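Human: I hope this is not a bother. Would you mind checking the protein record under this note? Thank you for your patience.
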Amino acid sequence: MSIPFITAEEAASYIKNGDNVAFSGFTASGTPKVVTVALAERAKKLHEEGKPFKINVFTGASTNDHVDGELARANAVAIRTPYQSHSDMRKSLNSAEMNYFDLHLSHLSQDLRYGFYGDIDVAIIEATEMSPNGEVILGAGLGMTPTIAQLAKKVIIEYSTYYRNSFRGFHDNYVPQDPPHRREIPIYKPSDRIGSTVLKIDPKKIIGVVPSNASESIKPFTAPDEVSQRISENICHFLASQLREGRIPKEFLPIQSGVGNVANAVLYGLGENPEIPQFEMYTEVIQDAVMHLMEQGRCKFASTCALTFSDDAMLHFMDNIDFFRDKVLMRPGEISNSPEIVRRLGLIAMNTALEADIFGNVNSTHVLGTKMMNGIGGSADFCRNAYLSIFSCPSIQKGGKISTIVPMVSHLDHSEHSVKILATEQGVADLRGKDPRQRAETIIENCVHPMYKELMWDYLKLSKGGHTPHTLKAAFALHHAFSEKGDMLEADFAKFV
């Protein structure tokens, strides 16, 4: 069957108001880059004509400016899930211009197959190779592409010619059976292959192919600052101590790491620490740091959902692609984030927090309890099931006007039951085997910034007993102080005595 080449504008014309539209990729990697721009322009034109046009957007994770940015600025989104990180999209959802529901990244593919959110009307999928029979080689990110290719009524292919070499062999396309027929996912080490390198799409569903030569437009992370470096040192020293004490097997365990400067700093720290042996990764995203650690012989293998490399690093990867062919494997998000596999492999999970409280509860998503930042992502997929779950954050923000360690988190994403280790640049709190008061004492002593320690001790002194020594009328005093006076240090627990 011959599949026609069409323009981005022609492709966009097939998408109707109210459609459920799903996109390939995970982070910016592997996401569409030209059809979405045309779709945003179509939305603007229809709005100028007084006609409604909004779609429901389903993605593997965050995207890039070509998707979330363009569609948000065009006011073209009615519903968004499961995760976003774009400032324009964030502004739209926090102003209620769209409906956004936060979701664990391992859940969306299966939820779509279960029919929870209706049919997928259109899937827009980036491919780097394709044949007339509908066999495609995907790009630098998998996301939930195998599922949306299966479910979509119509498929639009963005054919990318940007990459210098083929990604053939780097993907592991796999869709598990759904209940009541689901069996175990047969991954017993990070390098196990269980699916196909090629994604097969029914050619009858493919509307057309749209050429693209756009990069992922991922900027490199800045060099670790002093705070990030100290957090890294604290975590690496802690893990080394666990190795010495036999609490981590001597051959070490696979690493899962979140995204950002702190995550990169920790990975570089692991690579430099002589007590940490060569390690593997089973994670949702690998960044520039992992590629460098592979070239240094410190990271042996990485199973991931996406190559979230800066543009320069991606070109380096493609120029040296034969070196990486036996070291990297890309999987769908529901496999990279599968709780079953996380527990089986015994991952050391390292993720970041917006704020944590003195009892070990973590807020990953909401600033001051109300404004969405990005979303929960895959952090809960990993932390709840990991061998060891570590959350990190700087102890203060805004020059000390905000303490990231508070009496009670303003929004709860990860409870004390899942958080084993909390780390800041001040130190590490090991919460295992401790009751609430002991956790509070450990966190205050090891993780709270010196300028806030006295305040936290004052809060504990308010308690009149109980298993968890909260004083509800005072629990959000720091948040109230910041809202009213712009500085959490203005909180005064004396008035609650």
